[in-house]
Amino acid sequence: MDSQSATPTQQTNTISKRQGPADSELPIMISPSYPGQPLLEAFGELRGDIEALVARVGGVLLRGFDVPSVDDFQQFAAAFGHPLLSYEFASTPRLAVSSGIYTSTEYPAHQHIPLHNEQAYTREWPMKIWFHCVTASPEGGETPIADSRAIYRRMPAEIRERFAPGILYVRNYGDFDMPWQKVFNTEDRAEVEAFCLRAGIRCEWKPDGDLRTTQLCQSIETHPVTGEQVWFNQGHLFHVSNLQPEVRESLEELLDPEDMPRNVFFADGSPIDDAIFDEIRGVLADETVMFPWQAGDVLMLDNMLVAHARTPFKGPRKVVVAMAEGHGNLSKD
């Protein structure tokens, strides 16, 4: 589908090798006015189109622009007017590249990272997220995306109803999950306790010195601007069914459900059956849009309207991330 634009830039979602639902517009691609146009130079003419398209469709792919450095990407993301956010209460390992810029999740290349909205396992999250492909992997390494509104609509009504009160995330930091010192960026227990109090997280220091946190978070959320309902949680990532079968089996021989590195429960604390997450993962798969990266690409998403993932890859790959416009819901208790 071609869109009309008041600027010389071209808008289209005809992206080479794109795969996804026929009715999905994700992502709208914007091309430069001339070959090799610097992205920062184009910002003035692009901004209005980008903001309108991200608000409507959820995601824009800027392809064919010159992005000579990560600093240029940082300046582009910051130019939208919100300070770039730090990565707090982390669930996955990342490396800081520069102020407000991080590597994408540092998981081994052979592992798949399922679809998720950034920090939807908390009550505070970024509204905007940018990805910049510095080096495209020669094989795999895509960043699949999906419309969270379409996921909500496709989700079986009985699952939406059961999840509506929210879900309970339980994390045990230490040997099997990230150390709490890395998650909270401190060695000071008092700082951890203060963060948890502010964020509505229940924390408990265990006899071995490790930490357990419990937090009731949203499963379904209303977008603050569009008013649309979105599927917005990471239950399928935190539930024990996300573990490799042999890992899960060995951990369950050692640990009670509440002592697993990560687990998720219904709002009332009752367990969630694996079959429910099988259905949820099926819906996510049906709404997935995928396309290969090209070096220099910049993808901008509304983090509530669009979820993202990562496929396994071989060879070199470098994708960096920026986040901005913090938003939250601290009224679950």
UniProtKB/TrEMBL annotation:
Gene3D superfamilies: Clavaminate synthase-like. Its cofactor is Fe(2+). GO terms for molecular function: dioxygenase activity. It comes from the Bacteria. The keyword S-adenosyl-L-methionine does not apply. Keywords: Antibiotic biosynthesis, Dioxygenase, Oxidoreductase. Pfam families: TauD. Residues 1-17 have a biased composition (Polar residues). Residues 1-27 are annotated as: Disordered. SUPFAM superfamilies: Clavaminate synthase-like. Residues 45-322 form the TauD/TfdA-like domain. InterPro entries: AlphaKG_dependent_hydroxylases (IPR050411), TauD-like_sf (IPR042098), TauD/TfdA-like (IPR003819). This is TauD/TfdA family dioxygenase.
